[in-house]
Amino acid sequence: MADNAVFGPPLPHLSSIPPSTPSTRACATELASLLGARAHDFAIEWVACCDSTNALLVDAPPADDGRVHVLVTDRQTAGRGRRGRQWLSWEGASLTFSLLWRFAPGTPAPAGLSLAAGLALARALEQLGVEGVQLKWPNDVLVHGDKLAGILVELLPMRGRPPAAVIGIGLNLRLPADAVVPDQAGVADLAGALGGEPPSRPALLAAILGEFHRLFETYAAAGFPALRGAWEQRNAFADLPVAVRGESATLYGTCIGVDDDGALLLRGEDGIQRVLAGDVSLRPLMDGPR
Ligand code: ATP
To answer: What is the pLDDT of residue 163?
Structure first.
């Protein structure tokens, strides 16, 4: 495949970051060749370093050319999590990238999108042989209870255009021995989950992008209800007591699943409550209400 099928001229929105290097170009070329016929569905930029791949795509989204825009970086210096939290990554030890996904004109506000993204990543990891993959609402990916990957979905203002979402993913490949992750009980990496050397980042991305494409076609056509059962099969806290911490209050109950909009369903003393993603954090409840 010709290089310019992948790179093209530098996109204006990326003019403020370092140009690609021979090594990042080699990664992008390998990714395009692994994507095969699917490569034409994606516009791929692979850069050596940036602050946040989500921030770049949110602040200056590239023009709509019918493709899914993918921005990958070797090193992310200010990775974002939800509610101003940080996503930490280490060069050579993490896969960090974001996708800009546009939905067809007339598509309603995408309900359950965060959950669909988590499911796509979970399925890609399962296909690579990872066992014990679980989803923690709304969209963390765990392995046997420990956090392997984080996802941040940010919706772009629509103003008469088709809805668009930036989906950022950070996946731990091989955590440094001295890595410290605040406020996270258990952290996993892919090397540990696979019991050996993880696939190269281009190979991982090819598997993940392929799965996103398949699953988002279903999502665009039939919405989250078509994926709800698959999400619930992987629910890390199915039928377990949990605490859902919000800005001003904490809800306690048993996690009984999610509804067709992707809202968390909690059974508590006052019946079933729906919790919308956004400003809440889900935690297992080991020792009763605190
Ligand atoms: P939580 O995981 O606390 O429920 P969240 O799902 O909103 O919160 P994210 O926005 O996905 O979290 O990610 C931010 C949080 O993830 C950080 O507060 C930190 O606890 C954790 N974290 C940051 N970097 C990593 C990493 N490389 N591996 C695992 N966890 C991380």
So the answer is: 78
Closest ligand 1 atom to 183 CA: 20
Question: SS3 of 96, please?
Answer: strand
This prediction's pTM:
0.91
The whole domain housing 16 covers: 12-233
* Spans in the chain with pLDDT lower than 70: 1-19, 108-109, 158, 277-281, 285-290
Whether ligand 1 lies within 6 angstroms of the CB of 87 is answered as yes
Whether the Cβ atoms of residue 31 and residue 4 lie closer than 8 Å to each other: no
For the chain, how many structural domains are there in total?
A: 2
Q: Which two tokens stand for residue 14?
A: 């990326």
> What gap in Å lies between CA 70 and CA 46, rounded to an integer?
8
Examine the domain organization and report whether 202 and 68 are in the same domain.
Answer: yes
pLDDT of res. 247: 80
- Give domain status of residue 5, yes or no: no
Residue 241 and residue 158 in contact, taking contact as beta carbons nearer than 8 Å: no
pLDDT (0 to 100) of residue 278 = 57
Ligand 1 in reach of 88 Cβ (< 6 A): yes
Check residue 85 and give its pLDDT.
87
Question: Which atom of ligand 1 is nearest to 151's Cα?
Answer: 11
Which residue, chain included where needed, has tokens 């921030």? 55
Q: Is the CB of 237 under 6 A from ligand 1?
A: no
Assess whether 197 and 257 both reside in one domain. Answer: no
**Residue 74 domain-assigned?**
yes
